[in-house]
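Q: Sequence in, structure out?
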Amino acid sequence: MEEIDLARKMRELDISVVGDISPEAKAANLLQALFIVIPPRGISDRSTFSNLVKYYAARAAQEGEEPDYIYRILIGFALESSGPASRNPAAVFMSIVKKELSYDPSKGITNSEEVKPCRIGPRTLGPQPLKRPERGPYTKE
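A: Exactly. Output:
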């Protein structure tokens, strides 16, 4: 699935992960978007995605930030992992999240200083605070 296709589908379903909606609604919408990009094969995929969304929603709340920035990154990783060559997109997605964002739910939610920084292209992710993104394809018009 391409990013433009996902944005179109999200507009059709009237879901958005950014904007002036409650954090709980953003988390529910992110979960729905992940299910669109990577259809879960079973209950394991559903619970893994749900736990991932809860983890990052709680982390953003702990840091007092809006989760919009990290949600965009997660959607980007989901799009990347759902390519035609991927035999198990859910596993690829979780592998990318664990590697790039140091996701480890067994450690619980940590302070951002304790999270190991990672590098994606020219931008460093990890310990930097979550920032509210500019307008983009995942916002309601």
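Residues 111-127 have pLDDT under 50 and may be disordered.
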